[in-house]
Write a structure and sequence with these properties.
The chain has about 210 residues and is an alpha+beta fold. The protein is built from 5 helices and 6 strands, in the order H-H-H-H-E-E-E-E-E-E-H. Helix 3 packs antiparallel against helix 4. The protein is elongated, with a radius of gyration of 52 Å. The protein starts with a helix and ends with a helix.
Length: about 210
């Protein structure tokens, strides 16, 4: 009788140990599954910071971004303006330098003409030299787009290209006829830079009215 009770006690202990082991394993598996569920479940994912921002905060952030972009754009435009102004000034100096070099050649010819005039006995050669200098001078002006405005005595007066400095009462020629040309006019690239100074005929009858 005693032997059987000992065996029963041993069996009951073994059953208890197996139950405890099974219970521990089940608990371990259960905790692992819960951990996985916690990791994978979208409900447990961290909420994005954007969702937490209030409309006022989002508006302030967008405002700061736009201000930064505006300041950068203003700085870029200012740099572009300065760079363009500097480039234009360099171009102007280069063009002016070329114009002056062209006229230096005329100055050299003037110096030679003066030396020749001091010793020349023929007045005709002096006049011919001056005419050549005048042609050379005006050819440089034409090179840079300057042209003499057409204006002739007895021609028709054009208020857009001529300036009347005097009116002459006469019935010998029609009204608005150029009587005398005092100064030639010039246009640069077809734009009048100086009108021709002229006197214009006016009918005495028109003056009496």
């Amino acid at each position: 009788m005693k032997k059987s009770s000992k065996k029963e006690n041993m069996h009951s202990k073994e059953d208890s140990q197996m139950k405890a082991e099974n219970s521990g394993a089940w608990n371990s598996e259960s905790s692992t599954e819960k951990a996985d569920e916690t990791t994978v479940s979208p409900e447990n994912e961290p909420v994005s910071s954007g969702a937490e921002k209030s409309p006022e905060a989002a508006c302030r952030e967008e405002n700061e971004l736009l201000k930064d972009q505006l300041f950068r754009l203003a700085a870029d435009f200012d740099n572009f303006r300065k760079r363009t102004a500097r480039q234009m000034e360099e171009n102007r100096k280069a063009a002016l330098e070329q114009v002056l070099l062209d006229f230096v050649e005329v100055t050299d010819n003037f110096d030679r003409a003066l030396k020749s005039a001091r010793t020349a006995e023929d007045m005709g050669s002096i006049i011919s030299g001056i005419e050549q200098l005048s042609k050379q001078f005006f050819s440089i002006l034409e090179k840079y787009g300057l042209e003499r405005i057409k204006c002739e005595k007895a021609g028709e007066f054009d208020p857009h290209r001529h300036e009347a400095v005097q009116h002459v009462e006469t019935s010998d020629v029609p009204d608005n006829t150029i009587v005398e040309v005092y100064k030639s006019g010039y246009a640069l690239n077809e734009r009048v830079v100086r009108p021709a100074l002229v006197s214009v005929a006016r009918s005495p009858e028109e003056t009496e009215k």
